[in-house]
Amino acid sequence: MTIRNYEAVVLGASFGGMQMLKLLLTALPRDFSLPVIAVQHTAPTAEGALAELLNRVCEIEVREANEKEPIEPARVYLAPANYHLLVEPDRTFSLTVDERVNYARPAIDVLFETAAETYGAGLIGLVLTGANSDGAKGLRHIKDRGGLAIVQDPATAAAPAMPRAAILAARPHRVLAPEQITALLLQIHHHRQERI
Amino acid sequence: MTSYRDDPQRAEPATVSDGEIDRLLSAVYEKYGYDFRAYSRAHVKRRLLHRLRLANLDNLGLLQQQVLQDAHFASQLLQDLSINVTEMFRDPEFYLAVRAKVIPLLKTWSYIKIWHAGCSTGEEVYSMAILLREEGLSDRVQIYATDFNPHALARAREGIFPADHMKTYARNYQSTGACASFADYYHAKYDSAIMDPALKRNILWAQHNLVTDSDFAEVQMVICRNVLIYFNRQLQNHVHGLFHRSLTNGGILCLGKKESLVLTDHRELYSEVDRQQKIYKKRYDYSQL
Question: Considering the domain boundaries, does residue B86 fall inside one?
């Protein structure tokens, strides 16, 4: 497969996502050349604990996204609990308290759809383990806008329902095991670094 | 590694350009006076795409035509773009902080005026009215509760909420350091909960648009939670100007949990009362800064 000059990675995870996020994000170098924007479904009362925990074990900086802040490479941004995370056309974040989507706030679809509108073909979308179908429509949207659609192989997922729903709805370019996902992300990183 | 073939039947999502959005929002503003031009563009775009799908329209030009010709359709779009998600005692820790840190400050004024801006359907206004009553302030407090959306405001004024929400609200209430039973503040009728009419004595409901209207009173506290996140940076600064002009020296500003003064032009003009809960106090010496 040809590696394009991608500009951002969005990913969504639900049940079992904690282990997956840890596995993927600890594999990224501190200077990873793209921003990574993630929605992990959590309880509405969670107060940034996930970001703190991941930041402790990862080389790359991990924290919650702030409204209006510019999206920068070499950072992992997590959606805060009980807010939707949106990507603006000027590559900053917005937060909203709109209705839940797929019973979830933050919802993966909301992040994916708005990121697809902004990054188009420069976006990589990743749907990981989960027990619902959030992210399926969003991944389809990413693909329709020319981005790269990837789904975790359901056979390797703690909960296969979300990857399965995404495969059905989006017909992704790739269905990959976790270690293949990290390998691909690192390949994209090196490709980008060589071009700079 | 597996690859999946595309379903050729499937239609691609409608494309909406920034120019089209600009034209639509300008037309809405000229015809109806509602100004969404400085709202978060990603939010507006998402809502417009959603309305396009529901209305089965191909592009934003057609939607614009319908909005201008059909007042009912326009009012639907108004609902789409406004923020109507709220609950009573949302973020109980905020109300805990108000009890502990703000009430003692409010008590130093003989009469307290509070502007609750962007109150939507009123749940959070009733919450504050309950808290103020419990803190013994109902005899000397006036809440101005405003929103630009007349439908939301009409529901707020009624004070009738779905009974099945009350369980969540009661749980929130109990976590605010409450000293009574939440059921004392409403009575249930069929599937509705009707708020105690006495709570309304302290509340004045009024239509006010943060984007286009100016400040209207000097107040001791401004509450505006989870509204400014929908605005772009310039509009946020404009609205912070309104709030700052409205607040008396030492007055209190309450924002949403993820809203902060840090990125605005007004950060120097307030001190922090509670960093976590985004509660600020207007500085006395602001003119010397």
Answer: no
Q: For B135, phi and psi rounded to 5 degrees?
A: -90, 10
B53 touches B72 (CB < 8 A)? no
DSSP calls for A126-176: EE---SS-TTHHHHHHHHHTT-EEEEE-GGG-SS-HHHHHHHHHH--SEEE
Q: Which domains does chain A have, with CATH numbers?
A: 8-195 (3.40.50.180)
Active-site annotation holds for A14: yes
pLDDT tens figures, B186-242: 999 999 999 999 999 999 999 999 999 999 999 999 999 999 999 999 999 999 999
pTM (2 d.p.):
0.92
Residue B167 lies in a domain: yes
- Out of B4, B260, B263, the one facing A172 most closely (by C-beta) is B4
Domain extent at residue B222: 92-288
Residues of B in CB contact (< 8 Å) with A are 1-7, 12-13, 18, 40-43, 45-46, 49, 83, 85, 226, 229-230, 233, 236, 256, 258-260, 263
